[in-house]
Amino acid sequence: MDGEFAGYASVADSRYSLHGPCAQALGVHESLQDASVVLELELIASVEPLAGSLTRSP
Q1: Which of 33, 39, 46, 49 is the most buried (most CB within 10 A)?
Q2: Is the backbone of residue 43 left (phi > 0), alpha (psi -120 to 50) or beta?
């Protein structure tokens, strides 16, 4: 996803509300670091199915 929109976090009351690249809700987290880890895992999970479909033979 190099150069593409990865998502965003907003902060309110010391909690980080995380949204993914399609603005899907990814939860509320205690720290920006926690939110970043969740976003990274979400991005990896969204790319893996695509990579698998490119390596399979018809």
Answers
A1: 39
A2: alpha
